[in-house]
Design brief:
Layout: E1 3-5, E2 8-10, E3 15-18, E4 24-28, H1 33-37
Antiparallel strand pairs: 1-2, 3-4
């Protein structure tokens, strides 16, 4: 899978990174994973609740967590 890496478009092996609730965040490779995940609040990479974030958490089935 080709993706936008830290140094431009890359054909390196890449994959989707997900938050702790399985919500897709971004496509990464070994080279850009740390820098791309640094854009997100660290709490979303671990189990979190509505009290931990500043916005509503709405899973795809419409129920609130």
């Amino acid at each position: 899978m080709s993706h936008q890496c830290i140094d431009g478009r890359s054909d390196r092996h890449s994959w989707w990174e997900y938050d702790a609730h399985g919500i897709p965040l971004c496509v990464v490779c070994d080279d850009c994973r740390a820098s791309k995940l640094a854009r997100y609040q660290p709490v979303i990479l671990t189990r979190y609740t509505q009290a931990d974030v500043d916005e509503r958490i709405e899973p795809e089935d419409g129920t609130l967590l």
